[in-house]
Amino acid sequence: MAERARATASAARFGFTDDRAEQLLRDAGWWSESGPLPGSDALLTAFARSPDPDLALRGVDRVREADESGWPELAEELRTNAVLRGRLLSVLGSSTALSDFLAGNPAQWRRVVGAGLTRQEDYATTLGAAVRDDEGVLSGAAAEQALRVGYRGLLLEVAAADLGHLVERELEQPDYTRIAALLTTLAEAALRAGLDVAVGEVDNAEAAQLAVIAMGKCGGRELNYVSDVDVIFAAEGDLQVATRLATTMMRTVGKACFEVDAALRPEGKAGALVRTLEGHETYYKKWASTWEFQALLKARPVAGDPDLGQRYAELVAPLVWSASERDNFVTDVQRMRRRVERHVPSELVDRELKLGRGGLRDVEFAVQLLQMVHGRVDADLRSASTMEALSALGSGGYVGRSDAAELEESYEFLRTVEHRLQLRRLRRTHLFPDDSETAELRWLARACGLRPVRGRSEGEALITAFRRHVQRIRRLHEKLFYRPLLDSVARVPTAALRLTTQQAASRLAALGYAAPDGALQHIQALTSGVSRRAAIQHALLPVLLDLLADTPDPDGGLLAYRRVSEALAETPWYLRVLRDESAVVERVALLLGTSKLVPDLLVRAPEVLQLLSDPNRLAGRSPAEVATSLRAAARRQPGLEAAVTIARSLRRHEMLRVAAADLLDLLDVPSVCAALSSVWSAVLEAALAAAVRVRKAELGSELATIAVIGMGRLGGAELGYSSDADVLFVCEPAEGATDAEAVRFASSVAETVRKALGAPSQDPPLEVDTNLRPEGRNGALVRTLASYRAYYERWSEVWEAQALLRARPVAGDPELGERFIEAVNPFRYPEGGLDPVRIREVRRIKARVDTERMPKGADRTTHTKLGRGGLADVEWTAQLWQLRYAHEVPGLRTTSTPGALRAMAEAGLVESEDAEALVDAWMLATRARNAGMLVRGKPVDQLPGSGRELAAVARVLGYPADEDPGEFLDQYRRTTRRAHAIVERLFYED
């Protein structure tokens, strides 16, 4: 037992952990009860260096069992031949799939003996011979089997050349590009062999000439161990024959080697598999999207008729290198980039080698975009290879040389990791192991040539390296586009590494800036000089320019950023917050590139910037808390002007906070409306209290109690960013004062409030509108409660009862406000409802409003207020039903439009589906109207019909940037059209 324990411990010295390792070594003739047999130490050391010694040993044992007669030869070679040891044990310790291949074809181990690897230029000949016998080219299953064995045998050689140095250090370590080139040549050879088989199987094959054009990684000579091979087919002669040739080749190669994917052809999978050159030319010149030219950057003929393939390449090259001049170039490229990013599940994004942020696609996308922008005039950039193109970009000064070298290193690291992961089981995967997968991480680290470092395990070293390279790619992805832009306008002697002004402008144009010359001026203004501020801007701008390029209006965003930066130049924490808080700079870019209202507010309320790092602080304040703070701050001021100033300041802060939370999708429509209504009410309260104090000081006494009644959207707590405050002023005499004295006092106060709040300002206007008072503009500004009651009893019309439906106390004396509401309830909720005459009057007034107030030339389908199914349609319908039924349905006694609609459904007055459709239309119109104000910076009820403003409104409403903003308009029209049909039925039909 002790002897066995010593033997097991000795086996563990060579990295074996499998309980069967000792027995397998003994079966192979390399181990005895006392330990390694003489002459086996070098071999066992080689096992220890293998990525997975147990896996390698099991693989050797499977070969031994599969070919016992040949085993003595292999055993001796493994003992004495260092080259074979290095190649075979590294492959068997890395790939279960190639172990399976050798177990099924044990004689294939001889392919990796000595210097006998097949030369790269002989791959096509080798596979061509594999699909032939003495009678000619094989066909059907026989051809597929022969091609499969031949392909896997050459793949074994490539893996042996790739991995051998891991076990035997004297073997050459090839770089990534060498292995990618070998894998690409092997794929080309398989395509040619498959085409040979197709020519033999298809009748009358000589009637067609077919060229196979490689795309993607095959076109760029950078294939993985497991990749789909993207192709396009061009043909002359009989297209039906050519199609059969292409189909047969795809089937043969697909079953034997890898999937052949022709989805990048014109019209994709819906298009013809094979086209003539003329057909390709017509499609690309008339119909192709920008992403298709980006894909064609890697197009390269690899099989079939060489002359036809060359003519195809010459046809598409000018189209590729002029694609960046297309009007939709930026939009299409950005849309494709975002679509790719959205395909990655959020829980896997940090482990996705290919599509994750900081992954391979970031490098490839950046390089291809720079190639298409600058390759128009610089032929040195026209390479299908990512690594060659990146090197050329560095040499040409489009990217800093050190940045290009670092990016090449990180790209090669990620591709190497990807190769090892795919080689394991010969399956297509791009997912880095989870941190908890210790054994997988250890194997992968060893397969990548990593060893323990400073007490850390191989797996920990791999994780550290992976994260370092991903972060570097993220950082350089930003610099790749934007750092040369800064260098091109900076006054520094780096001409060899700077873009010319024209090149910098071209790059900005390609990235979505409509006025690149202006953008360059902004960059220069922000980074000029040698101050600390300029240095921080120089560090910030690459990130900011990248973020702005993904917003609806990069030019407007950059201009706004310059304005804000200049206005806050002396604010000590401004740039520090942007530099140190990545979330803040991301959100600032989104806000500035989307909204014209935000920059104006931000200049005067910069403290809101500090809330952007914490969504809870930005969106979490309750309206009641805000209102209390505003009123308290205003009360502490010594006079009316100071009180109004502080109230304006706090309103500005609150409006910016709400706007930012709204744009960042942290608040829903009701929350936005409630917050804006609450702060408006608090401003009124603050101004009213200050005006009363001033007037009382002048007269020596307070002659009236005053209440402010909110009407319209203010009363309904449904204010938007551009809404006025519709109000009524009501008063009652103080003790000892007459009604006339009270009215004069209150009128003076009300007029003071109106003027103070309505004074010109840089802030959004604070218009106090009293036109809903009795007798309208001709009536008294303020009335006593008794006067209001008398007027409504004797003279009021149906429209005034309708207006009172939204009456709600918002400021002043709360007890008086409640008594006003009690006094007007009989008029707005009339006993018995409305008689037919008054119903017809409501309908007549609405028809008149629809006709007379709609602006000339407005589009009724997209006018948020008066348009078809818009705010007015829905609100008038709800209000008519309130006038008719609120006296008997308590739920209808609400100032809220959605609340009234849902109460109608709950009472069975309308179908629930109809009520919800109206609520949906009202919510959408309200949000769209708010979005229009945020985007344009001024109140406009008409939605934009196209352009950047439409794109910005669509983004605010949650539509992805890679979708056509017209989708939003279509959805808006569908929603409001349905609502309008319901309004026609509920409002006009009895």
UniProtKB/TrEMBL annotation:
SUPFAM superfamilies: Nucleotidyltransferase (SSF81301), Nucleotidyltransferase substrate binding subunit/domain (SSF81593)
Residue span(s) of domain PII-uridylyltransferase/Glutamine-synthetase adenylyltransferase: 335-481, 845-987
Name the record gives this protein: Bifunctional glutamine synthetase adenylyltransferase/adenylyl-removing enzyme
Cofactor(s) needed: Mg(2+)
One Pfam family, short name: GlnD_UR_UTase
One Gene Ontology CC term in the entry: cytosol
Catalytic activities: [glutamine synthetase]-L-tyrosine + ATP = [glutamine synthetase]-O(4)-(5'-adenylyl)-L-tyrosine + diphosphate; [glutamine synthetase]-O(4)-(5'-adenylyl)-L-tyrosine + phosphate = [glutamine synthetase]-L-tyrosine + ADP
Keyword Ribosomal protein on entry: no
Gene from which this protein is expressed: glnE
InterPro entries registered for this protein in UniProt: GlnE, GlnE_rpt_dom, NT_sf, PII_UdlTrfase/GS_AdlTrfase
Species in which this protein is naturally found: Amycolatopsis marina
Residue span of region Adenylyl removase: 1-485
Database matches in CDD domains: NT_GlnE_GlnD_like
Keywords, alphabetical: ATP-binding, Ligase, Magnesium, Multifunctional enzyme, Nucleotide-binding, Nucleotidyltransferase, Transferase
Record keyword Acetylation present: no
Record region (Adenylyl transferase): 493-990
Enzyme Commission number, as recorded: 2.7.7.89, 2.7.7.42
Record's function text: Involved in the regulation of glutamine synthetase GlnA, a key enzyme in the process to assimilate ammonia. When cellular nitrogen levels are high, the C-terminal adenylyl transferase (AT) inactivates GlnA by covalent transfer of an adenylyl group from ATP to specific tyrosine residue of GlnA, thus reducing its activity. Conversely, when nitrogen levels are low, the N-terminal adenylyl removase (AR) activates GlnA by removing the adenylyl group by phosphorolysis, increasing its activity.
UniProt GO BP: regulation of glutamine family amino acid metabolic process
Phylogenetic classification of the source organism: Bacteria, Bacillati, Actinomycetota, Actinomycetes, Pseudonocardiales
GO molecular function (one): ligase activity
Domain of life according to the entry: Bacteria
Glutamate-ammonia ligase adenylyltransferase repeated domain mapped to chain residues: 87-312, 586-821
Family as reported in the entry's similarity comment: Belongs to the GlnE family.
